[in-house]
Structures are given as structure tokens and as C-alpha cells.
Write a structure and sequence with these properties.
With 331 residues, the protein is α+β, with helices and mostly antiparallel strands. The chain has four domains: 61 residues, no CATH class; 102 residues, Tetrahydropterin Synthase, Chain A (2-Layer Sandwich), CATH 3.30.479; 29 residues; 86 residues. It has nine helices and eight strands. A hairpin with a 2-residue loop joins strand 2 and strand 3. Helix 3 runs antiparallel to helix 5, helix 6 crosses helix 7 and helix 8 runs antiparallel to helix 9. The chain is rod-shaped. The N and C termini lie far apart (138 Å).
Amino acid sequence: MGAVFAVIVILVILGIIAAARSFKVIQQYEKGVIYRFGQVLPELRGPGLHVIRPVGDRMQKVNMQIIAMAVPAQEGITKDNVTVRVDAVVYFRVVDPVKATINVQNYMFAVSQQAQTSLRSIIGQSEMDQLLAERESVNRELRRIIDEPTEGPWGIRVERVEIKDVSLPEQMKRSMSRQAEAERERRARIITADGEYQASKRLAAAANVMARDPAALQLRLLQTVVEVAGEKNSTLVMPVPVELLRFFVFQPFTLGVRLFGNMFAGHLLLTIFTLASWYLLTLSVGLVYAAGSFALAIFVFLLETLVTLLQAFIFTTLTATYIASSVEPAH
């Protein structure tokens, strides 16, 4: 009786083991590869519950999800002889589970090594400016290099490759910083010079407009005075326009000339009237008295003329002195 019970127990245990080996659950993101006595069956098992032979069959599950693998930083010399350190990330997935399990022992390790060697190769083929500025083209070329030996024989497709960081030596960073600073300064100077050129053209056009109408200069001066006077914390200095000096310089001189002419004409008429009177008087008195009177009239005329010239000279000198004292502080 005890032997029968032992046999039953052994059969139950063997049944449980056989059931555990026969029933396999495959997830939605997996594929099952069946090995029957070491030979791969062509049919792949999809997601769900599957029953295999407990003896002779073995199932290997292959993950079909996209795998993100970080590529360790690789140090190399670029095409323009600059030492850089570059790290990247590779996105790939299995497209043929049979090739991924048969043709390569460990496809994860194989893809990692292929990505590292390809990254060092792309560093040597590219220039530093390409690694820094043309990331898209470098990523596409790196993806092509990695995907070429992996998709056909290994059944692995590289979906995307991204360069994460490019580390440069400190000396190169300082050189690039100085270059960028010089470039920005050059652009700033060009912009400033262009602004000065445009402003000079506008000022020249404004000067031509003001030259055609001198009153515009005075209006512009008054406008500037109004703008400056808005700030109460400043002292206002009024410049004297050059156009106003013409009035102050030429008007007194013209006035002096007119005054001298009027005085000289008056004295001339007075002298002529005196000579005429003395001439009429000489007709009745005599030639001697007439000659004396004529000489006296000539002397009076010369004396009055000298006095008139002296007055005109004094008036002109005082006017010029006043104008000079008024104009010099303005300059």
C-alpha cells in the first residue's frame, strides 16, 4: 500500500513539472523562439499562453521593445586635430528574433561594442565644428555606420542615434570663448558704424533743408532749448546762432554810415547857404570884405567837416567795441 502511494506521489510531482515546462506565457512585447532538440522551429510564438513539449522543447523569449543603450564616452582626435570626448545614446530593437538568438551570442553586448567603435570612427572623420553645430548630419552618419553590420546578419535595427555631449579641453573652451567674443565685438562695431552712416545721411539731408531756410535753424535751436529746459537740474547755456551775428554786425555799421551821410549832407547844405549869403552880401559891401567872408566860410566848412568825421569815427569805434564784447562770451 505504501509503495502505491509513493508511486502516485512521484507521478503527481512529475505531472506538475511537466505542466510547468509545457505551459508558457508570452507577453505582448515578446516573441517566443522554440528549440526542439537543439533545432529552431521556423514558427514563432506570439503573445499568450502556449503549450510545448515538456521533453525536447525549449522556449527562448525575445524582447521586441525599443532599447535605449547609453554609449560610454569615447575620447578621440577630430579631423582638424582637436581632442574631444563624446558620449551618445543608441535606440534599437530586434526585428528578427531568430537571427538575434542564433547569429550573435549576446546582441546587447555586440551592439554596445559596435556603437563604441563607430563613435570613435565618426570622431576621426568629422571636424570639431561639425560635432558642435551639425549634430543632425553626424547622428545620421553614426546611425548608418552602426546599423549597417547589425540589421542584416544580427536581425537588429538601429532606430536612432543621438550624441549627448561633446567635451572639449579647457584651453579650447577659452579659445572658442575669445573667438565668440571677438565675433560679437566685430558685429557690434559693424552695426554701430552702419548706424553712424545712416545717421550722417539723415543729418546731411536735414542740413540741406535748414540751409534753404535759415529760420529752420532757429526753430531747431528753440526746440533743443525746450527739450533741455525740461530737466530742472541742469544749467542752460544759450548759444548765439551765426545768423543773428549778421544783424548785430552789419546794422550798426549801416546806421553809422547813414548818420555820417546825413550829417555831411546837412553841413554841406549849410555851407552852401552860407556861401550864397556871403556872396550876396559882397555885392553891396565890396570885394575885400567879400574875399574875407569867403575865406571864413571855407574855414567854417572845413572845421564842421572835421568835427563830423571825428563824431562818425568815435561812433563806429564804440559800436564795434560793444559788438565784440557781446559776441565773444557766446563763442
